Records
---
Amino acid sequence: MSHPSEGDLILLYYGEAGASAAVEAHLASCPACARAFEALRADLSSVTEDPIPARGEDYRETVWRALQPRLGASAGARPATRRAVRWWAPAALAASLVAAFLAGRHFPPRPSAAPIPEQARDRIFVVMVGEHLERSEMVLLEVANAEGNDPVDVRSAQESAENLVAANRLFRLSARRAGEPGVATVLDELERVLLEVAHGPSQLGPDERAQLRRRIESGDLLFKVRILESTMRSKEKQMAAVPGTAS
Amino acid sequence: MVQMAGSDDDTETLAQARAGDADAFRRLVERHSRDVFRLAYRMTRNEHDAEDVVQEAFLRAYRNLDRFEQRSNFASWIYRITANCAYDSLRARDRRQESAHPMTIADESDGPIPELPSEAPTPDRLVFGGEVRRRVALAMRRMSSLEKSAFTLRHFEGLSIEEIGRALDLDASAAKQSVFRAVRKVREALGRDPGLRPTT
């Protein structure tokens, strides 16, 4: 046979069923192709896997907590989930409000079976996003601004960050679907940092805090979060001034 | 096909979930979430994106429970869904980067990748100092989303070309060519010239 192609050698290396026995026979009689195959084998053998971030035993519950509100009302009213539902209920409500609020700016209003009047619903959404941003800002400040040379225990901030991540994801996805890339981008950046906090070490030394601080400052994240929060607060005040929207 | 750890319990739990038992679906999520994350991370190489893929995969599974074929197994099914979601995530990431930096995303052609900025590799440098890892990471960044997905599934996950095609909704030929292009990029990044082949 003619010399096998690189593709033939790749299929042979991976043990694909399509790899021809003729290729193997050829390699046995052609030193040049045998060397080419050995080079390929050496290259691909050197490609090893990076470590995959560990996920603890509680990860299963974390996934479910974030997923459950998105599955609809039929998913899960069981006692074991009560703790999760307590903090998720506002987030789930907020997510639907995010979508409705943002979509309302792009599509004509249509009849809704929602029991909450539209204006009041929008105001609740604005309040919740504002509070979410405020809490996120506090977590970031708490972790990044701790002073001293000793390691700081940030377990409390981590727990807060983990809860905020789940809520943030809902806000972000809803904003993206509703065609609000600016809002989605800020929430995306925020989420990445919250994830770092949530899944990082529970004791942060001065170097780690400085690194986190640089991470926050590099994208002006706090500034963007504050601007978005301020926008929400202004909107909240405007809405409060409109009859029928005060809660 | 390498797949996630399934369980005999899945069959019964899945039947309950299909009948509308949300608690049963919860058990499936809890049973498979870590494996789903592992695959999602391998494909996206980004923790944040992997978490999104985990959510999207289970959501997609939930919405399509009625389409699940009884003769399949849930682990294989959620594996394929996850691979597909991760591929979607990579494409979305490419689109975002492309709109921000139009010249930085790899196309799906066979064109050579640019020379590495560092000096030519010696075997010692490649073996030691994480140079191989750095160069492979660079090659992965230069792959298209399709090449990256196909290569990850072939090289790290051990899927056959045919299985990759099924997972990514491609025909086998497209899957195979994607793996070839990805391997070529890896070898180029390692300083090998794959074009040096004996002539007939």
Note: The first helix of chain A runs from residue 6 to 13.
---
Amino acid sequence: MVNESKHILSRSLSPQDFQVILLAGTGDAPRLEVDAQIIRSALLKLNADPRATG
Amino acid sequence: MGKYYPLERYLFLQQTGTVALTFSRIGEIIHDSLRPAAHAYRAWWANNIKGHVHAAAWLNAGYKVETVDLERGVVTFAKLGGGAPPFPVSEASGTPSRQQKHDGYGKSVLRAAVGPRFSAYGTTITYDTSQARIDGTVDAMIAVEIESRANKQVRGAILDLLMHPYSKRLLVLIPSGLVSTWSTRASTFYRDL
């Protein structure tokens, strides 16, 4: 589904303007620290400063 | 960041089926004291987000309040596991459905990643006769959609993202109801669009 989502979004957006990520954890089996790092990496690719402030 | 987010994060990290906390311990976790109503009214501890926004702290973490002892100042949280409500659950019940539980997890991850820069208050825009709603924003410039359901719903989430005017988009998928394979037929269809 990640690839399909990227494919659809790429029809309308430039690659640098979107990110599609698949988390490792779920509400039933959270992996908070791992997933937070996945989010930070995606934001870095969107040119957003990934440093948490809170 | 919400006052009770540290409690949500604390519960997320617990591996046990039940977690008993004194009110004073919760105060240490949230670095603030509980409201007087928490000490006086059992209703404050209801597992219902409607009218009890603070309940999101334990419900998003996958816990519910099992018992509360106002005299001793102790609350026991029990994990929403096998006893979790069936999917979907009526919103009128105020109990989170599996989807809400996963989406709540996605929002918790975003808060853990970027703190208060993530706003979980998504906006809704209307186009023609439909509406597009996003789950939140980062830095008020990145639209965020969190999706944990089947592929059809993921495509709806993509449409919602595309309809909003934010300059960047982030689609967060949670591997609960997603189909991992993408059929060759679908691949061909999208490639030929």
Note: The helical segments of chain A are 2-10, 32-45.
